[in-house]
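Please think about what follows:
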Amino acid sequence: MRTVLAVVVGVVTWGVVNTVLWMALLAVSPDAFGDDRLPTTTAMTAALLVLSFLCSIAAGFVAAKIAQGNPGKAVWILAVVNLLIGIAVEVSQWDALPVWYHLGLILMVIPFTLLGGRLAGTAAA
């Protein structure tokens, strides 16, 4: 049961951290986004990618802390779930952002989620 809870809270954590960091980016640099809320510069697109990496680290960290008994399993499941969510989101926005952004997010979600698990002081990865 803890594994399921860890995965669910990990997904929620990813979303909450993303929202908070997204709002911070908008506050710091509102002109770097168009009316469609897409970045207007390469630098801001890269910043969004880094933001996604931070979300994955936070999600993995929280999931590992919650899972306790078997954090590795919970963090791996979370990483795969977030990968599937990421693929769906990136496919839906494929024409809106550069290919390097999509591939970076998809390729790095698992390693950064596992890193978050390791930072939690567990054997998550």
